Amino acid sequence: MNKKEIPTKIYLREDEMPKNWYNMRADMKEKHPPFLHPGTLKPCTAEDLYPVFCKSLVEQELDQETTLIPIPEGILDFYKMYRPSPLVRAYCLEKALGTPAEIYYKFEGNNTSGSHKLNSAVPQVYYAKEEGLTSLTTETGAGQWGTALSMACAFYGINLTVYMVKVSSEQKPYRKAVMETYGAKVIPSPSDTTRVGKKILEANPTTGGSLGCAISEAIETAVTTDKCRYVLGSVLDHVILHQSIIGQECKIALDKYGVKPDIIIGCAGGGSNLAGLIAPFIGEKIKGKSNTRFIAVEPASCPSLTRGKYAYDFGDTGKMTPLVKMYTLGNGFMPSANHAGGLRYHGMSPILSKLYDDGYMEAKAYEQTAVFEAAVKFARTEGILPAPESSHAIKAAMDEALECKKTGEKKVILFGLSGTGYFDLSAYMAYNKKTMTDYIPTDADLEQGFASIPRIPGIND
Ligand SMILES: *Cc1c(COP(=O)(O)O)cnc(C)c1O
Fold first, then answer.
1. Could you count the other beta carbons within 10 Å of the beta carbon of residue 458?
2. Is residue 326 assigned to a domain?
3. Would residue 138 count as lying in a domain?
4. Host domain of residue 244
5. Neighbour count for residue 339 (Cβ, 10 Å)
6. Mutate to test the pocket of ligand 1, among 85, 113, 124, 144 (most ligand atoms within 8 A of CB)
7. CA–CA separation, 400 and 175 (whole Å)
8. How many Å lie between the centroid of ligand 1 and the Cα of residue 115?
């Protein structure tokens, strides 16, 4: 097909949208190791998880066999209000880079929450409502997850308490305002509203908080409140299941034009947007039908895949979650205070961790000033102001495209543009004023984090 026939935006009609989520675990030759109950060190059962999570989500979390899971009508109705998301051929960026590569990006920032997180917020709240729950708790770092969840809670009529990492709530007052507009209660974390929050504050009164602390507070409130559960916006398998809508839409759109990506790139914090983007494509790779390269991009200041350990660790600083086998910097790891680019979580999705460990996926880390340089170049050529998180993927896509320029290869590069940067303007200001600095943790810094990984004979050696 003549390349010129590919439109700048490849749209799907409503009737072409996916009707199922794709559960890539069903196609994985080896599943990731199970969650372990921290007390018994036995695999977690559904009963262990019911006090914390909604029933339907626990079932999805533990279902490693069903390939396609139907999306209920009540969820599709909400999805249709902001999906399909645009798949864009980056003609202008290709030209600016002078690359023979074809570059495509899937833009998930076209909804008020400004990111892909709404794709999982909607089903999580829908199922909570169906089960007769009246309230939910969660944590939010940069604020996108809390915003997405507030939108979904307002739509389905559920009360929401959001523990927001303290530094973020100070840097991003407008995020808080959006969440409150949708009816959520926002509490900076660590706070004195929970036992674990008080304990963390006692040990470290001036801490700016971390996702790990905020998770501990949200879980404590969920398990001590009637008809309340905790919801999480990344990392877990059911979140990744919901995010498979991204990759499936991409695949349907690209198949229409016979385009097959050679490289698929996404930023990775907890791993949900990347896993969702690659889902159907990794399925093909596992089945030996393609040889696509997959690249996870992370900040050099929080390098869980590139420098972390593949070990059983807690998902939170308060050590309340089950033990999860994942690439981790240790639940006690705190990224340096100058880090502005998001993606600060210490661990990584167990699915992506397993794919990476099995050699299906590569990983790369970039320093934040290089990431912002790519973000600004992208904004000036493609028009969209990208989220700092997403800009990690932009940077890697540009580097691959420039590599093609050297070799003359016409590779097809697809990357995930997971969100917009409207709420990250303080980070852009720092970059523009040239006050942004880079910090790469030393091996000694990382050792401090690793020391918080539990030592369990026979499990973590
Ligand atoms: C939350 C977020 C991320 C990181 O989370 P993942 O689970 O790794 O996708 C990336 N980009 C944006 C815009 C986000 O809001």
1. 6
2. yes
3. no
4. 3-18+71-114+237-450
5. 22
6. 144
7. 33
8. 7
Q: How many domains does the chain have?
A: 1
271 C-beta closer than 6 A to ligand 1:
yes
CA of 207 to the centre of ligand 1 (A): 23
User: Which residues touch 330 (CB under 8 Å, ≥6 apart)?
Assistant: 309, 313, 346, 448, 449, 450, 451, 452, 453
Shortest-distance Cα residue to atom 7 of ligand 1: 272
Cβ neighbours of residue 306 closer than 8 Å, sequence gap 6 or more: 298, 363, 364, 365
Residue 152 to residue 169: CA distance in whole angstroms: 21
Q: Is 384 in the pocket of ligand 1 (CB under 6 A)?
A: no
How many angstroms does the Cα of residue 149 sit away from the middle of ligand 1?
14
Question: Ligand 1 within 6 A of 351 CB?
Answer: no
CB of 147 closer than 6 angstroms to any ligand 1 atom: no
Q: Could you tell me if residue 255 is inside a domain?
A: yes
Determine, yes or no, domain membership for 12: yes
148 lines ligand 1 (CB under 6 A): no
Reference 111, options 153, 137, 163, 147; nearest CA is 147
Pocket mutation for ligand 1, best pick of 115, 344, 423 (most atoms within 8 Å of C-beta): 115
Beta carbon of 111 within 6 Å of any ligand 1 atom:
no
| 436 Cα: distance to centroid of ligand 1 (angstroms) | 21
> Distance, CA 457 to ligand 1 centroid (Å)?
34
Ligand 1 pocket residue status of 418, Cβ below 6 Å:
yes
C-alpha to C-alpha distance for 426 and 418, rounded to whole angstroms = 19
CATH number at residue 367: 3.40.50.1100
Q: Is the CB of residue 144 below 6 angstroms from any atom belonging to ligand 1?
A: yes
Point out which residues pair with 102 in neighbouring strands.
412
**Tens-level pLDDT at each residue, the chain (461 residues):** 455 589 999 989 999 999 999 999 999 999 999 999 999 999 999 999 999 899 999 999 999 999 999 999 999 999 999 999 999 999 999 999 999 999 999 999 999 999 999 999 999 999 999 999 999 999 998 889 999 999 999 999 999 999 999 988 988 889 999 999 999 999 999 999 999 999 999 999 999 888 878 988 999 999 999 999 999 999 999 999 999 999 999 999 999 999 999 999 999 999 999 999 999 999 999 999 999 999 999 999 999 999 999 999 999 887 888 999 999 999 989 888 778 777 888 999 999 999 999 999 999 999 999 999 999 999 999 999 999 999 999 999 999 999 999 999 999 999 999 999 998 898 999 999 999 999 999 999 999 999 999 999 888 87
